[in-house]
Amino acid sequence: MKKKETVKSYVIFGIGKFGRSIAEELAEAGHNVLAVDRDPEKVSAVADTVTMAAVADVNDARQMENLGLSDFDAAVVSTTGDLSASVMCVMLTKEAGIPLVIAKASDERQAKVFERIGADRVIIPEKDAAARVVHTLLNKDYLDVFELSDDILLAEITLRKDWEGKSLRELDLRRSHRINVAAIRVEGDLFINWDADKLLPKGASIVVIADRKTLDKVIKDSAK
């Protein structure tokens, strides 16, 4: 008898492109997700795809207390542009007893700050495709991978041959393969804001957020 997968609860702070992709993939995988941002428009945009979305300022202790942080299994701090807010968020989530807190940093300096104040894992998307390998997967097609949960991966994979010479808009990978594109790597350079109409060159790699089964299928199909 197949073991039933455990439903977990995640809170995502900062609903930019990165945070929203993680929130939506976790929700699609059947987990409970609370998306938090101080921008009402961003919260509204993701409200229909997650369990709950809330407008809150991480610098407001009362608003943070009202979120019931102690009930969550993991937190992702993906706030941008305000280091003090990110620091406060990491500290409050750890104080609340959340067992796994992942913080997104913009550089090594921020990463050291987050590690020092208690973040369990720190990822730097702009530097190395959102983290080094945490749990190595025995599959040569995964160039790098970071497990966001038991089911959801943030991975860099080799660009499929049938995707070469096509644009992200043409491929529409979220609709066709249920994966979110976070970045494109070309000749060693990582492009976070790749033009959706620009053709993907041969030899490029792609950084995506998706569930493990979906990525395994995408890679398996590319070998056909």
**Residue windows where pLDDT falls under 50 for at least 5 positions:** 128-140
Annotated CATH topology of the largest domain: Rossmann fold
Helix content: 25-40%
For the largest beta-sheet, the strand count, sense and barrel status come to: 6 strands, parallel
What's the oligomerization state? single chain
Q: Please give the CATH architecture of the largest domain.
A: 3-Layer(aba) Sandwich
Determine Rg (CA atoms, Å): 17 Å
Shape: globular
**Order of strands, widest sheet:** 3-2-1-4-5-6
What does the model show?
The protein is of the alpha/beta class. Helix content is 31%, strand content 25%. The protein has 2 domains: 9-123, Rossmann fold, CATH 3.40.50.720; 142-222, Alpha-Beta Plaits (2-Layer Sandwich), CATH 3.30.70. Strand 5, helix 5 (108-116) and strand 6 (121-123) form a beta-alpha-beta unit. It is globular.
Describe the structure using short key phrases.
single chain, 224 residues, alpha/beta, Rossmann fold, Alpha-Beta Plaits, 2 domains, 6-stranded parallel beta sheet, 5-stranded antiparallel beta sheet
Question: Secondary structure elements and their pairing?
Answer:
Layout: E1 9-13, H1 17-28, E2 32-37, H2 40-46, E3 52-55, H3 61-65, E4 74-77, H4 83-95, E5 100-104, H5 108-116, E6 121-123, H6 125-128, E7 142-147, E8 152-158, H7 168-171, H8 173-177, E9 180-186, E10 189-191, E11 205-211, H9 212-222
Parallel strand pairs: 1-2, 1-4, 2-3, 4-5, 5-6
Antiparallel strand pairs: 7-8, 8-11, 9-10, 9-11
Brief write-up:
This protein has 224 residues and is α/β, with parallel strands linked by helices. It is built from nine helices and eleven strands. The strands form two sheets. A six-stranded parallel β-sheet has the order 3-2-1-4-5-6, with helices on both faces.
